[in-house]
C-alpha cells in the first residue's frame, strides 16, 4: 500500500487540500486494488483551522506519519508563516530527501521555493503570488498560464481549484488515463463555468 499525504496547517486554503482529497480519496476507496491510500498530517497531529474557519483533525503528526510516496502541500495565508519558519523549511527539505513525488497547490509552491526545492525548475502558483514566487527563487521559471506544472518529482499547481486538475493528473501518472476518467466521472467534475 502506497501513501499520499496531504499537509494541513492553520490558515490552509480549504479547497487547496479538500479538492485533491476528494479526487485522490475517491480513487483510493473506489479502486482499492490500485494500492493507494490518502491521509492527512499536520505538525503535531492536532486539529487545525483553515483559512475560512473549517476545523480539520489530521490523522497523523510529522512524527507518527507513515512513510509517504506523495506529499501535497496546499496553499493559503498560512503558508506565509512557513516562509520564515526554519523548522518547517528543514522538515520540507527532509521530505524532499525521502518522498519520491512532491506536489503543491496554490501558494504551497512558495514554501517549496523558499526551501530551495524549485531551483532551476518550472513552477506555478496562484496568479496573485507569481511575483513573490519569482522573488523567492529567481532561478525558477514561472509558468503563469499553466493549471499545473509537472517537472518529474515535483508538481506545482495554480490557485485553489487548480488542485483538482493537478490531482486528476496525479491519478494519470500513478495509475492511468482511464482510471482518472473514472474518478472524474465519479466525482462529477466537468468544469464549465456559468459565467
UniProtKB/TrEMBL annotation:
One Pfam match: DJ-1_PfpI
Superkingdom, taxonomy of origin: Bacteria
GO biological process, one term: regulation of DNA-templated transcription
Domain (DJ-1/PfpI): residue spans on this chain: 3-171
Protein name: Thiamine biosynthesis protein ThiJ
Provenance organism: Parafrankia soli
